[in-house]
Write a structure and sequence with these properties.
about 550 residues; 17 helices; 20 strands; alpha+beta
Length: about 550
């Protein structure tokens, strides 16, 4: 659907995977069709209100949602200004539409989930929620920005470190909530981003104001909370009324602990089901990489690994979990087979001050089953949660709740002189290819008749064409023509060099255009009003 200033692309198949990000600017992709989302939500609600839901799941679901209502309200109250809606508005009386993402400076396509959740919540009288996956590893703590060394150079990607600091530990990667904001680096970061953007003609960006707001937060905010809270404040200023909660906060509550105890008590079944579903998924998708989409769970003798992480007191890194079933009762340890640091399962396990976090698939499983009425995924999560569907069905023995997948593509706004649209590049490519074919097939057409030697070659070529023999008698003639063509090609060598130069320049321009039209730039590089206006318009459009 094409609308003034924007385009919305909707994929209408529930099984329309692999969903791909739209290639053009101001495009959104939604699976299933935008017009069917209300019925999708209603189908999930009908199931959760039916007798098909096992009683223990229903009870745990009510507990989890009650805790999230209080948690989200208290969390918002700690940093949002102005009066808040009472936490009772987050009760079980209204449907919940939920999404989530790591606490990173993601691109606008990821941000589109939050905007769409808010719009769908308003359309269906639901509550919009966003889970901050702050316990996930911060694998990228840099920002990529377009840049030019000077006005004569092609644009390239420059990588800038974020103003963050990490605790002193030998671990390569740490969870987002282990990082801190380094306020001493804020001005340097803002200056380097501003310099990079101005070199490609961008003078309006939210980045400086964004990081200044990060610096103004209380110093007890870790990086995950600081980056997320500034973004959430921005959303609220633009009328996006989602609630948020950090996943690590949820993992301190009773509902999560009860779910972990269920996983520990059924560790053997969960381990087997998880690995069987993973093997089936890999076979179906023809995946040979043992780490994709997730590694298999381990098993060493009596020790069984569930899809959970353990964080030990005083440590920042996550550890694999091991569970053993012994005659004296269950044991839980930081690693499968590590008896030395094992503690009994059940209540003493929680009293050990260990922190248990969900692994990737377990995160969305818990959010989809025990909190959301409709879960909204990005592309990667939507693809991988077909695996989660199988685990839900086999381990929890319920039909997997239906979910929504969406993304969007937004480009940075450059001055007109900095950008050539794709149709123009396509025309250039066709012209270059046509010229290449002519140089190879008809080099005589490029002879300069003002140059005597080239004039002589043109005459010889015409004379040879005039005495072309009939078919079947052309062997000697073909040999002469090939020799003459070789002389012509040598004579117009400068044309081939010129074509090579044009092709090299075109490929560089094409690469530059790919950089300038990347959808992967963080939302903080955009102008606040511009990026949110575009995302909101995409979310509003209905089919």
């Amino acid at each position: 659907i094409r609308l003034p200033g924007r385009v919305l692309l909707v994929t209408d198949s529930v099984h329309g995977f692999p969903l791909r990000a739209p290639r053009g600017n101001n495009l959104a992709a939604i699976v299933p069709d935008r017009s069917t989302i209300a019925s999708l939500l209603q189908a999930n609600l009908s199931f959760w209100n039916s007798s098909q839901v096992p009683s223990w799941i229903g009870t745990l679901r009510r507990l989890a949602r009650s805790q999230i209502a209080t948690l989200s309200h208290d969390y918002a109250e700690s940093y949002l200004n102005g009066p808040l809606v009472p936490s009772a508005e987050l009760s079980l009386n209204r449907p919940w539409i939920l999404g989530g993402h790591q606490a990173e400076l993601f691109h606008p396509g990821v941000w589109f989930k939050n905007i769409l959740i808010d719009r769908l919540a308003k359309e269906t009288n639901s509550v919009g929620l966003h889970a901050i996956i702050d316990h996930d590893l911060a694998r990228v703590t840099t920002l990529r920005a377009p840049s030019r060394a000077d006005s004569r150079q092609r644009a390239h990607i420059t990588t800038l470190p974020l103003p963050l600091s990490r605790p002193s530990t030998p671990d390569t990667f740490l969870p987002w909530n282990a990082w801190q904001v380094d306020r001493s680096k804020i001005e340097d970061t803002c200056g380097r981003i501003r310099q990079a953007l101005e070199s490609v003609g961008i003078t309006k960006s939210m980045s400086t104001d964004y990081f200044h707001q990060v610096a103004s937060l209380p110093e007890d905010r870790n990086a995950a909370l600081a980056l997320s809270q500034v973004r959430h404040r921005m959303e609220r200023r633009h009328g996006i009324s989602n609630w948020e909660f950090p996943m690590s906060y949820l993992c301190q509550g009773k509902s999560w602990r009860e779910f972990v105890e269920h996983c520990v008590a059924n560790a053997a079944e969960l381990n087997r089901t998880y690995n069987e579903c993973l093997d089936d998924y890999r076979s179906r998708e023809q995946i040979t990489n043992p780490a994709q989409p997730v590694p298999r769970l381990g098993r060493q003798g009596d020790w069984i690994e569930p899809p959970l992480w353990i964080r030990l007191p005083g440590q920042f890194s996550r550890n694999r979990m091991g569970v053993s079933k012994l005659e004296s009762g269950g044991l839980v340890a930081p690693e499968p087979g590590s008896h030395d640091s094992a503690v009994p399962g059940g209540e003493p396990f929680w009293e050990s001050s260990w922190i248990v976090w969900p692994r990737a698939l377990t995160t969305t499983l818990f959010l989809r089953v025990f909190i959301a009425d409709l879960f909204v995924h990005g592309i990667g999560g939507g693809q991988y949660d077909r695996l989660t569907d199988a685990i839900i069905e086999r381990f929890l023995r319920i039909p997997p709740p239906k979910f929504l997948t969406c993304t969007a593509t937004l480009w940075l706004t450059f001055p007109e002189s900095s950008s050539i649209e794709e149709p123009a590049l396509t025309e250039q490519a066709m012209a270059l290819e046509h010229q290449r074919q002519r140089l190879r097939a008809c080099p005589e057409q490029f002879l300069d008749l003002q140059v005597p030697a080239q004039m002589q070659l043109a005459i010889e070529h015409r004379q040879l064409l005039d005495r072309m023999p009939p078919r079947g008698l052309k062997k000697t003639w073909d040999h002469e023509m090939r020799g003459l063509k070789a002389k012509i090609v040598a004579a117009i060598d400068e044309h081939f060099h010129a074509w090579d130069d044009r092709m090299t320049a075109f490929e560089a321009r094409k690469l530059e255009q790919k950089i300038l039209q990347s959808r992967e730039f963080s939302y903080v590089l955009f102008e606040e009003q511009d990026v949110l206006h575009r995302l909101i318009q995409l979310a509003i459009t209905r089919c």
